[in-house]
């Protein structure tokens, strides 16, 4: 026991000494005169996870330590190189004590914090390399004190501020590297003092201003890279004096003006990159003097005119990039037979005319990009003289004619981009010789004929896109030979026949797009081998039969769209992939119930227009990524008893046209992302839950054609973004809640065919965006029409018919300048119609208590009838006659009324607004404005506008006459 | 001499030109519009350009053939400008972009919207001229351009749109005279007010109406 304590105390003691020896230099042999003293302090400030400083031990000679070179006195170091040593932490300020240092290299570590200002004390420093760390802050001005400095490389850090302010003081500099930081400010004139500067790299900063003319003072400069900054104005002509320059990179700045011809004096220039500026004018012909030039990139400028570059002079040119300019022609003598030009990029210019055949002289070309021009005419058969070509990009031009069969001789071809042209004809059979071809894009052309079997000899093919042509016939049955195929896109062609089962042997397939064709037959079970398959779309074909069971094996399947086919059976095979994010099977003949498990990664699930049965599976509450769920137009039954409030991302919830029953669940109120809720045409009962008011992002809400009862909850007013509210055809009762005024964005409001009572709340008049329709017809609404409805200046249709509205029509309604459908019939309205109403057809006003004036009979006629008196002597006799005949008349009238009512009812059901215009089949009401779309007649609005009687009224002429009779009868009744 | 910093950026664009996923042109058109807009209230958040059709995008309505008939982005706190691509929505009937902060001009291409019934651009910051191409909108009924910064004359071709029922160009900076013929016959005068340089109804048969106005 005592020994243990002794041992322990000994241990603690020695540990204390150890710690003390690290922290208290007094205990160490070294003194501040000795660099090792400072180096050990520096060591203690570094974090050294890789042990790069493990050899830095007090008991060994400093001169043996890693990274250190001692001076002759062995007490001072002249070089410290800890590049790429995994060091962390800040740069110690004690570095400033190493005053004999000539070289300090801390590059390629993970150092942070600022550059210590005292670094200015290192008066002997010749090389300072701090690049590729995470050093932040600004460059201390004391750097300018390092008069011996030849190499300063501090790029690829998080440094900011003006780094170049005092740079002129460092006249010994050979290398200055400041790239990939966040420096700003401009290049000072004093840069010209750096007579020995050979490498200047300012790339990827925020330097701005003009490049000073004085740069020419740097007469030794070999490489000047200033790309990706904000330099502006002209390129100084004095750059032409930098006769040693080999590399000039000013890409991606805002330089303007012309390219100075003086650049042609740079006789050593190998690399010239001015892309991504605002340079204009022509390319100076003098540039042909740059006979060392290998790479010239002038793309993405505003250069125009003729391309004056001649390969006869630029013998070493390998890359010529002139894309995204305004060039109009390619010079006929661009290439010599023995040129070195490998890459020629002329994309996105204004080159027109036929294919520039002289380019075919550029036989050394590997890549040719003429895309995005206006080149027309046919592709020349002699294209195959470009024997070395690996990439040919002719897309987005106006090429016509056919692909020449000689294309088969271009056996080095890797990529062939011909999309976005007007190429016709078929694919030449010779294409099968292109064994290197990996990418073939023919989409957006007018090609036709079959896809030749020979194409399946191109064994390297990985990407095939024929979208938007008129290829016909069947997919070659040998397609399975394309073992390297990754993407097969044949959408929007006229392909027919079966999908070949060999396609299942293209096992690398990731994207298979056969949509918008005329394919028939069934989906081959071999698809089960396509284990890499990520996306498959077969929509808009005539495929039938069941989904093969084998699709269950496709674990990577993410996007599936088989909509608009005639597929049948169960959809269970899709439950195999938990990668599935989008599944669209709309408009097929799938039956059976929805599988109990589906991918929990589903974002969109569309199963509408099938014959699915059963209910919504319990498992759906796990589909937490779901944004769109469309199960409408099926045969789903049961109640919504699965709580789906866990689907917190759900935006569209569409269940219309099923046979769902029970109450509308209150949990819907917890799906707060909901933007569209359609439960229409089901058998939902009971009240509208007030919780629906919590779905504050709802834009469209339709509960029409159910059996809902009770009041419209006032909470509906919380749906302040609502555009469309449709509660039509239920048994709703009570008043229209005035809170509806809060739904300020409503443009369509339908509450018709309910039992709503009370007055029309005048607040409806504040819904100034109401546009498509305000339909309150077939309710029990009473009292006067509020004059506030006259504020609905955008309203195009107003239907208040078949209510109990009374009093006069407010004059304000006459000011509704957008209104073109109005139905106020079958109410108790009275009074003279304003002249503004004369343009509406009479059936807009029929069957009220006492309306008169155009389009109805004139009020004077009405009052004349009312004033007719009979001689008093006959009164008694007439009273007797009246008592007798009125019974008779009343009976016959009642009979007529009943008949009219039934006719009227029939018409009403077939008329959406009862004002006499077409009703769409049920379920289409959710689509807006379609009745206008349907009318191919462009004069629709004319022929049906206020001034004219709608054509529809002819079709209902039977009930029309009946209504006129009704009107006369009621005006006769008004006599009493 | 190590030249890590001296990496030269050679822009070989050839390999990067992989075709983007192609939707219908209507997706592209609406997406182009979205790209030009700033949308602080995120009303366009669910506009997924990878979908085949834009019919499940909020504020977009389609007909039964999945063609766009309505774009409802009124009062949505949007800024930015209109784009020519909107002219590709050939079944569009309602373009409701009122009460935003849309700037720039009305693209000529909107004249291609042959199904358009309503063009509601009122209460924005739109400048430039009313393009005469709008005269091609043979189905147009509602043209509300009021409360913008439009200048130039009211194109006479608009009077030839026989379906036109509502025109409101008040509170702009239009000039010339107010047309009175054709479909403009019944447009009330207050729909032209507050255009300081717009002169009273033109007198038929007199000299050209657009003096000092171009």
From TrEMBL, chain A:
Pfam families: LRR_1, LRR_14, LRR_8, LRRNT_2. The keyword Transmembrane applies. It is a single-pass membrane protein. GO terms for biological process: defense response; response to other organism. InterPro entries: Leu-rich_rpt, Leu-rich_rpt_typical-subtyp, LRR_dom_sf, LRR_N_plant-typ, LRR_R13L4/SHOC2-like. Keywords: Glycoprotein, Leucine-rich repeat, Membrane, Receptor, Repeat, Signal, Transmembrane, Transmembrane helix. Residues 1-30 form the signal peptide. Residues 161-275, 692-828 form the Disease resistance R13L4/SHOC-2-like LRR domain. Residues 33-70 form the Leucine-rich repeat-containing N-terminal plant-type domain. This is LRR receptor-like serine/threonine-protein kinase FLS2. It comes from Salvia splendens. The lineage of its organism: Eukaryota, Viridiplantae, Streptophyta, Embryophyta, Tracheophyta.
């Amino acid at each position: 026991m005592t020994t243990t304590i002794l041992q322990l105390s000994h241990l603690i003691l020695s540990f204390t000494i150890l710690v003390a020896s690290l922290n208290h230099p007094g205990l160490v042999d070294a003194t501040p005169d000795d660099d090792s003293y400072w180096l050990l302090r520096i060591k203690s400030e570094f974090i050294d996870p890789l042990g790069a400083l493990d050899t830095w031990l007090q008991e060994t000679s400093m001169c043996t330590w890693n990274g250190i070179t001692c001076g002759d006195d062995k007490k001072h170091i002249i070089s410290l190189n800890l590049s790429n040593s995994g060091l962390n932490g800040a740069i110690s300020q004690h570095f400033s004590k190493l005053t004999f240092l000539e070289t300090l290299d801390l590059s390629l570590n993970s150092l942070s914090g600022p550059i210590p200002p005292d670094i200015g004390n290192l008066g002997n420093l010749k090389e300072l390399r701090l690049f590729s760390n995470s050093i932040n802050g600004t460059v201390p001005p004391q750097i300018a004190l390092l008069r011996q400095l030849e190499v300063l490389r501090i790029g690829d850090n998080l440094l900011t501020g003006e780094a170049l302010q005092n740079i002129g003081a460092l006249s010994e500099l050979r290398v200055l590297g400041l790239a990939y930081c966040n420096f700003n400010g401009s290049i000072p004139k004093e840069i010209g003092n750096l007579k020995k500067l050979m490498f200047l790299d300012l790339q990827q900063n925020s330097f701005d201003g003009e490049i000073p003319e004085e740069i020419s003072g740097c007469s030794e400069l070999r490489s000047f890279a200033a790309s990706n900054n904000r330099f502006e104005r002209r390129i100084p002509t004095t750059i032409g004096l930098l006769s040693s320059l080999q590399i000039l990179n000013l890409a991606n700045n805002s330089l303007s003006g012309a390219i100075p011809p003086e650049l042609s004096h740079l006789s050593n220039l190998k690399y010239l990159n001015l892309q991504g500026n605002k340079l204009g004018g022509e390319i100076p012909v003098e540039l042909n003097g740059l006979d060392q030039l290998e790479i010239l990139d002038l793309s993405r400028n505003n250069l125009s005119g003729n391309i004056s570059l001649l390969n006869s002079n630029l013998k070493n040119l390998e890359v010529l990039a002139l894309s995204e300019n305004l060039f109009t022609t390619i010079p006929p003598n661009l290439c010599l037979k023995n040129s070195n030009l490998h890459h020629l990029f002329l994309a996105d210019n204004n080159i027109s005319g036929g294919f520039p055949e002289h380019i075919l002289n550029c036989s050394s070309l590997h890549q040719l990009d003429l895309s995005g021009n206006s080149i027309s005419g046919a592709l020349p058969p002699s294209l195959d003289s470009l024997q070395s070509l690996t990439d040919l990009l002719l897309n987005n031009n106006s090429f016509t004619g056919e692909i020449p069969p000689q294309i088969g001789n271009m056996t080095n071809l890797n990529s062939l981009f011909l999309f976005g042209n007007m190429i016709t004809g078929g694919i030449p059979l010779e294409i099968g010789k292109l064994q290197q071809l990996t990418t073939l894009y023919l989409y957006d052309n007018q090609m036709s004929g079959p896809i030749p079997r020979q194409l399946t000899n191109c064994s390297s093919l990985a990407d095939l896109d024929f979208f938007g042509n008129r290829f016909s016939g069947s997919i070659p049955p040998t397609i399975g030979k394309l073992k390297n195929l990754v993407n097969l896109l044949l959408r929007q062609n006229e392909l027919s026949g079966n999908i070949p089962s060999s396609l299942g042997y293209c096992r690398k397939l990731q994207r298979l797009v056969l949509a918008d064709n005329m394919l028939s037959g069934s989906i081959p079970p071999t698809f089960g081998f396509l284990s890499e398959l990520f996306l498959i779309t077969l929509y808009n074909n005539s495929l039938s039969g069941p989904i093969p069971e084998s699709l269950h094996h496709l674990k990577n399947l993410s996007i599936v769209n088989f909509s608009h086919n005639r597929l049948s059976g169960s959809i269970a095979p899709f439950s195999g992939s938990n990668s599935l994010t989008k599944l669209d099977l709309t408009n097929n003949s799938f039956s059976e119930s929805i599988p109990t498990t589906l991918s929990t990664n589903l974002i969109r699930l569309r199963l509408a227009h099938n014959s699915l049965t059963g209910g919504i599976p319990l498992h759906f509450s796990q589909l937490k990524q779901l944004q769109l769920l469309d199960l409408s137009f099926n045969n789903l039954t049961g109640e919504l008893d699965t709580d789906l409030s866990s689907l917190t991302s759900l935006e569209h919830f569409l269940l219309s046209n099923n046979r769902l029953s029970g109450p509308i669940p209150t949990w819907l109120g917890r799906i707060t992302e909901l933007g569209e809720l359609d439960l229409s045409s089901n058998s939902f009962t009971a009240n509208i839950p007030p919780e629906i008011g919590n779905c504050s992002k709802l834009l469209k809400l339709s509960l029409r054609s159910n059996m809902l009862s009770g009041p419209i909850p006032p909470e509906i007013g919380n749906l302040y973004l609502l555009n469309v509210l449709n509660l039509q055809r239920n048994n709703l009762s009570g008043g229209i809640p005035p809170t509806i005024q809060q739904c300020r964005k409503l443009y369509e409001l339908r509450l018709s065919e309910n039992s709503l009572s009370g007055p029309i709340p005048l607040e409806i008049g504040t819904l100034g965006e109401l546009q498509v329709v305000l339909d309150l017809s077939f309710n029990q609404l009473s009292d006067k029409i509020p004059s506030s409805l006259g504020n609905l200046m955008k309203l195009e249709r107003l239907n208040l018919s078949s209510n109990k509205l009374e009093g006069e029509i407010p004059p304000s309604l006459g000011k509704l300048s957008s209104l073109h459908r109005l139905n106020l019939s079958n109410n108790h309205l009275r009074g003279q119609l304003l002249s503004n109403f004369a343009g509406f057809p009479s059936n807009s006003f029929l069957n009220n208590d006492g309306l008169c004036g155009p389009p109805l009979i004139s009020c004077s006629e009405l009052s004349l009838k009312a004033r007719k008196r009979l001689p008093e002597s006959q009164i008694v006799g007439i009273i007797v006659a009246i008592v007798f005949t009125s019974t008779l008349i009343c009976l016959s009238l009642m009979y007529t009324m009943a008949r009219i009512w039934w006719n009227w009812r029939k018409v009403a059901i077939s008329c959406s607004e009862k004002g006499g215009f077409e009703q769409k089949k049920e379920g289409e009401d959710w689509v807006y404005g379609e009745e206008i779309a349907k009318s191919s007649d462009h004069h629709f609005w004319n022929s049906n506008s206020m001034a004219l009687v709608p054509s529809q009224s002819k079709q209902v002429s039977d009930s029309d006459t009946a209504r006129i009779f009704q009107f006369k009868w009621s005006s006769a009744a008004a006599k009493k | 001499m190590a030249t890590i910093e001296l990496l030269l950026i050679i822009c070989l664009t050839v390999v990067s030109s992989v075709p983007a996923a192609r939707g219908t042109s209507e997706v592209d058109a609406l997406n182009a519009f979205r790209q030009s807009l700033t949308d602080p209230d995120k009303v366009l958040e669910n506009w997924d350009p990878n979908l085949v059709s834009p019919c499940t995008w909020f504020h977009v309505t389609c007909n039964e053939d999945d063609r766009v008939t309505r774009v409802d982005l009124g009062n949505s706190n949007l800024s930015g400008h209109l784009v020519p691509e909107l002219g590709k929505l050939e079944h569009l009937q309602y373009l409701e972009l009122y009460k935003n902060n849309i700037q720039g001009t009305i693209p000529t291409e909107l004249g291609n919207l042959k199904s358009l019934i309503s063009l509601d651009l009122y209460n924005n910051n739109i400048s430039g001229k009313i393009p005469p191409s709008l005269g091609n909108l043979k189905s147009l009924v509602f043209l509300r351009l009021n409360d913008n910064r439009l200048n130039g004359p009211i194109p006479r071709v608009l009077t030839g749109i026989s379906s036109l029922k509502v025109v409101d160009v008040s509170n702009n900076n239009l000039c010339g005279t107010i047309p009175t013929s054709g479909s403009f016959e019944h447009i009330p005068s207050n729909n032209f007010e507050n255009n300081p340089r717009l002169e009273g109804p033109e007198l038929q048969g007199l000299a050209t109406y657009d003096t000092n106005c171009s």
